[in-house]
Amino acid sequence: MLRRQFVKTVGAGSVIASSGWLSGCATTGGGNGPKVVVVGGGFGGATAAKYVRMWSDYKINVTLVEPNASFVSCPMSNLVIGGVKTMADITTPYDNLTKRHGVTMVRDMVTTIDAEKRVVKLASGAELPYDRLILSPGVDFMWETLPGMAQAGAKDKVLHAWKAGAQTVALRKQLEAMPDGGVYAMTIPLAPYRCPPGPYERACQVAHYFSQAKPKSKVLILDANDDVTSKGPLFKKAWAERYKGIVEYRSKHTLTDVDVAGSTLKFDFNDPVKADVLNVIPGMRAGDLAVKTGLATANKRWCEVDFLTFESKAAKNVHVLGDSIQIAPGMPKSGHMANQHGKTCAAAVVALLTGKVPNANPIYNNTCYSFVSAEDVVHVASVHRYDAEKKTMVTVPGSGGVSSSANELEGRFALAWASNIWADTLA
Ligand SMILES: Cc1cc2nc3c(=O)[nH]c(=O)nc-3n(C[C@H](O)[C@H](O)[C@H](O)COP(=O)(O)OP(=O)(O)OC[C@H]3O[C@@H](n4cnc5c(N)ncnc54)[C@H](O)[C@@H]3O)c2cc1C
């Protein structure tokens, strides 16, 4: 009999012990084995939780703290905005982490970390002790750079939709409600930000929708960067050939504020832009928890780590991975990359907790697919290896690549990629 293991919040001040409610192929909860707490059930955290269990032969207790009831994927969420996919297509329950792998799920938020005592505190007031802590809290936004967005209701009206979920649905509704002949304006922050090609894919998806349903409408891309940051020639070709007269790309547009009531974007050197639907993707930094706890040591923005273990350079026994980290050159902030961090970190944590030496030569790979229409896709891929001299990851020359053209075969590969990575992370 399988037992549900999504532990709801427990009484204030209490300590949650690993329940050991295990089933499926997970044989024991690890009993008195070492304790790993994972914060964040996204691509990085969920992968790490699963693989610590698997690679410790289910001897290490793993508790995963995540506020959301299920995993909603940012990859493919632009297709929901474009009307090609539904939220159900990008949503996966956490059940298998519990049923198959014996991960204890706690639906809550971690609020503080006591690295000395090795305890995290939850919003409910409960505490979780750990031997090793793994954090993958994703990104949060630098709202302080956009004063107008602090007004009441502003964030419900001007959406980012850069964390898949309620805002994905809300942005789709705004586009549906926009009259034909309207303007959708999206701003892109300076790199680094989550998913370099993501905004350009979104522009294609919105343009695809307009081309079918509202052909007099416009997609205006206002990019703080000097040029398209990923797969530039391929995206520009799609805009020129597929969405001529719909998409307009403007570089070097740094957003300084938003006049929410006037539906207007303000820039440092460029004229303000008024549009019917504003989609502001703000500047990003490591998730709030990482910043608040002093783990974001690079410009108070990103967390520096040892790439062999993902142990924080600021706190012992605390590992940080995914979008929150200070990336190595050429390493994107992506779900695929967070999944690779999760596995590398899991292997290192298992080694460290069982008296072994972590792998000295980790290699990560990455592929980012982007849909330029409902079916046609382009990709960019790269491989990264540890350089012991430089103590960082370096891109392996000639190992990656980029599509020669957008096509439907790549579309099938992209859908297979998504199914595979969701399964690798959660099944
Ligand atoms: C539109 C879009 C398209 C994208 N497309 C692709 C793509 O095609 N391919 C690709 O590889 N990547 C893509 N990405 C990027 C990818 O989604 C991210 O890089 C990835 O989600 C990063 O994983 P993560 O674990 O760092 O963060 P997340 O996946 O965001 O997970 C963070 C989790 O931490 C939880 N959390 C935060 N704080 C706390 C706390 N205090 N306590 C407990 N839990 C907490 C959150 O609820 C969340 O579930 C895309 C992103 C976007 C926005």
Structure notes:
The protein is 25% helix and 24% strand. With 427 residues, it is α/β, with parallel strands linked by helices. It has two domains: 35-140 and 285-359, 3-Layer(bba) Sandwich (FAD/NAD(P)-binding domain), CATH 3.50.50.60; 143-282, 3-Layer(bba) Sandwich (FAD/NAD(P)-binding domain), CATH 3.50.50.60. Residues 1-29 have low confidence and may be disordered. Bound molecules: flavin-adenine dinucleotide. Flavin-adenine dinucleotide (FAD) binds at residues 39-45, 65-68, 74-75, 77-78, 109-110, 136-138, 162, 194-195, 198, 287, 289, 322-324, 333-336, 338, 368-369. Residues 39-45, 65-68, 74-75, 77-78, 109-110, 136-138, 162, 194-195, 198, 287, 289, 322-324, 333-336, 338, 368-369 line the site of flavin-adenine dinucleotide.
